């Protein structure tokens, strides 16, 4: 049975999840997290992928990226996975795979879904019961996006920038988004779209952009073959 197509659109944010094989721990100490982030920083520049948010959990990672080319996310995740596995296997004196096959992803369009993915990613340690608030978790982008520290790895998404004109006010508005847990319906939509590979998008975007491309826009839907130039988007 053919595997589901993956849709990547240049200039549109993508939520990515990659899990450890059999849910094994992919990070065992601080050096592991730092090495992963160092490679992510280098490869995001190489592939021209803006990194908006991340969370490195013990046995999986969440990323929110915006690629500028159709194949950028695939190239970044392939090289990132290979580099990190080589490092991890040497350090742990092990061999074999570390990641659970292909990464899972969905595009995120509109303020609702982009900012929802920011929150979904950075609230992951809270949902897992590891901390009471994202400020208590070291290995996520929350400290940067909330204004507590700076990091050249993080590039604000336009929907994040639109929260307020001034940076200080923007960070305050962003912090206020975390005063409540993520809405269950939005949380469910993000989880299901990412696992299922279908887009988180407004109806207008689905009709005007995705439908002409023959893209799958709902669970269980099958898109028609795509005939437009490959440079506009990528399926994998």
Q: So how many helices?
A: 9
In oligomeric terms, what are we looking at? single chain
Terminal Cα separation, in Å?
A: 14 Å
Q: How many strands in all? A: 6
Helix and strand sequence:
EEHEEHEHHHHHHHE
Largest sheet strand order: 3-4-2-5
List keywords for this structure.
four-stranded antiparallel beta sheet; two-stranded antiparallel sheet; 9 helices; 14% strand; alpha+beta; disordered C terminus; 6 strands; 236 residues
In words, what does this structure look like?
This protein has helices at 30-46, 72-92, 111-122, 124-127, 142-145, 158-161, 167-176, 184-196, 203-213, and strands spanning 7-8, 13-19, 49-56, 60-67, 104-108, 234-235. It has 236 residues and is an alpha+beta fold. 41% of the residues lie in helices and 14% in strands. Helix 1 (30-46) runs antiparallel to helix 2 (72-92). The strands form two sheets. It has a four-stranded antiparallel beta sheet with strand order 3-4-2-5, sandwiched between helices. The chain starts with 6 loop residues before the first strand and ends with a strand.
Please write out the topology:
Elements (H helix, E strand, L loop, with lengths): L6 E2 L4 E7 L10 H17 L2 E8 L3 E8 L4 H21 L11 E5 L2 H12 L1 H4 L14 H4 L12 H4 L5 H10 L7 H13 L6 H11 L20 E2 L1
Antiparallel strand pairs: 1-6, 2-4, 2-5, 3-4
Helix pairs in contact: 1-2
């Amino acid at each position: 049975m053919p595997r589901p197509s993956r849709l990547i659109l240049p200039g549109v944010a993508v939520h990515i999840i990659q899990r450890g094989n059999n849910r094994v721990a992919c990070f065992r100490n601080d050096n592991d997290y730092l090495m992963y982030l160092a490679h992510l920083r280098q490869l995001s520049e190489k592939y021209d992928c803006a990194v908006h948010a991340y969370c490195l959990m013990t046995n999986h990672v969440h990323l929110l990226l915006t690629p500028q080319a159709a194949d950028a996310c695939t190239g970044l995740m392939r090289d990132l996975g290979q580099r990190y596995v080589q490092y991890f296997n040497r350090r742990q004196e092990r061999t074999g795979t570390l990641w659970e096959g292909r990464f899972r992803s969905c595009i995120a369009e509109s303020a609702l879904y982009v900012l929802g993915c920011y929150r979904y990613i950075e609230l992951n340690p809270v949902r897992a019961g590891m901390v009471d608030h994202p400020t208590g978790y070291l290995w996520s982008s929350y400290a940067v996006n909330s204004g507590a520290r700076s990091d050249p790895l993080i590039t604000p998404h336009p929907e994040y920038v639109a929260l307020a004109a001034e940076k200080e006010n923007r960070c305050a508005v962003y912090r206020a988004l975390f005063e409540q847990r993520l809405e269950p319906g939005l949380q469910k939509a993000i989880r299901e779209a990412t696992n299922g590979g279908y887009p988180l998008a407004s109806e207008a975007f689905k009709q005007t952009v995705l439908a002409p491309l023959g893209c799958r826009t709902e669970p269980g839907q099958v898109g028609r073959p795509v005939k437009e130039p490959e440079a506009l988007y990528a399926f994998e």
